[in-house]
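If it is no trouble, can you show me the amino acids of a protein and the tokens describing how it folds?
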Amino acid sequence: MNQVNAIQTMKKNPFINIKLLFSLILSITLINVHAADITIYVSPNGNGGGSQHMPTTLQKAVAMLPGLKRNHPKGKITILLQDGEYELSQPIYITSENGGTKDLDIIFKAAKNASPVISGGKKITMTGDNLLKAVVPYIDANQPHDLYINGGRAVRARTPNIDHYFNIDKIVTKVDSQQKSKVIQQYEIPTTLFNELATLSKKDLQKVWSNIYFKWNNSIHPIDSLNPEKNSFFSTSVRSIVQNPSTFYVENYLKALDSPNEWYLDKDTIMYIPIQKSGSLEGVIPVLEKLLVIKGDSTLPVRNVVFDGIAFKYCNVKFKEYDFSQAAQIIDASIMIDNADGVVFTNCEVAHTGQYGIWLREGVKNSKIESCYLHDLGAGGIKIGETIIRENKMQWTSGNKVENCIIHTGGLNFPSGEGVFIAHSASNLIVHNDIGDFRYTGISVGWVWGYAFSPSINNKILYNHIHHIGWGVLSDMAAIYTLGISDGTEVGNNIIHDVYSYDYGGWGIYTDEGSSNIKIENNLVYRTKTGGFHQHYGKNNLIKNNIFALNEKFQTQFSLIEAHHSFDFKNNIIISDKGALLQGAWMRGNVGLDSNCYWNMNNGKCVFMLSTNSYGSKPIDTLSFAQWQQKSGRDSHSVLQDPGLIDPENGDFRLKEKSVLRKIGFKPFKLNDAGVFGNRKWREQAELPKEVIEAFDASVAKNMLP
């Protein structure tokens, strides 16, 4: 019976069954509840109730969600953000109380043609001529801060200036006699720097931070005192035991303020040297540590929250000192997510952070970050999972996707930050992203060293463009880095180039300690420092149908011999214009090599195999291709022959003829499928600016060890 008929029946029969009346009332109520999804309109200066013509504030809209959920348990509640900048006094908090459910989506969406910005920064106006100043009594001068001018990151006053480093002459280490957990290190430094630091008062000296780069890490610590006998300074840390070769710079003192775009905070006054002479400039100082926190419970996760077309900008992490941590894993993110299911970021921007951009941390499942632009990052881009394995498997993060994202320019405060960092997490898809301009690693997967249990399985790293990694300042790094047993993990159809470390390392694809059961197929890797591929140790990996070309020292490496089968290396094309084609333990290791094409562009004359004791430091034996085949009994179906690439020296790795393909069973793969997809504007945005590439090349040229 429809509603009209029911009402007519009631008019004719006043003694209608009370059950029918109750059903009618309930039906009308449900229709009213579900007749239309709810939209709340917000604007930066909203003071209304949330209608289209009287928008409310973002904070008030979030506060309305629990009540709206009770009255609207199914469908969608959309918070529509109009154009403008939403300056936060505290992060946005989404919990199980105000988040979505399996039946209800909570959507934060940009209005049509709007570009809303959620900001954790405070605007300041600096005035002056050659030196601009602004009084900022509301920030703590003892905490690190960042300053942004016209949307660009300014440089905290440092010596030497940006992208230059000092070498440490000598390091002496001893344990603190009073606190056994602490280590005191003495660093001998250049005389000119020592003399400059010696002019500072004790109070100003202890504000100076030493930022030391060593191996794959950095440490940031105050200077305790100076030692004039050795032209050195003392610094105390918990676990940052620095070894040479290392580089460093010092920052945060007035005398270091000597170059355009540098700034210094003196008590409550910011001083800034403009790039061009200016009477005044507007700047932004991040005052919040986080912009968005989504936190459910392991038994009641936040579900189905969507952010569409929104920019998140300006935040920083507070710390007094920083001890090294691989991948900057102890640094959090501007957007923190725990115990959530179905969280989506689409067409969003995350920028100007002092830390990582987004962290899918504890118990995050079935969530997506798609078509987002993450850039200007203090640490890395996206973290997935935790570095602890929780007893409750429901709290493990898994099944998430990062797709069609541009993740650029990271490691600006913590250089070991990565583009995408996956710790103890399974079944994630990292696909069709453009990751570039990082100081350490592009993508890493796994957090177990060796063959112990690892939850990091079935991860797919596919169709990514990863480039301009390393800057020649850190070591032992790669575009793609793996650790531990990784059943079902695939690294495929990625294009990788321009990976340059400071000292050892600088690989395209690096299967490090215990990396096992990984398929590496259809990747193009070129222009790296130490090699296109390197396996430290692991088991049962498959390296098949890849192109490794034009790498600096070696084309491929293999380090550690183990009793079990380490990997198979088949149907690959390896091209060199210098150095050895293979280096390391290939002769004696338990590996399978066959049906590969090797070639040296200098008329085929090359060292085919170079045996060394460790990372290429001391040659033991060199072999030609014929000697290699004879002595090793391997590569019997491989060839030393020009594979017929069109123009590899200028980046064109397409094949112009197929005779070699038939010999080795190589299957051509599309080289233009990697990277982001979409309209031309989006694809062009994935191209690093010319000045960034020039700065990268210059840093590699002056900082990288030979």
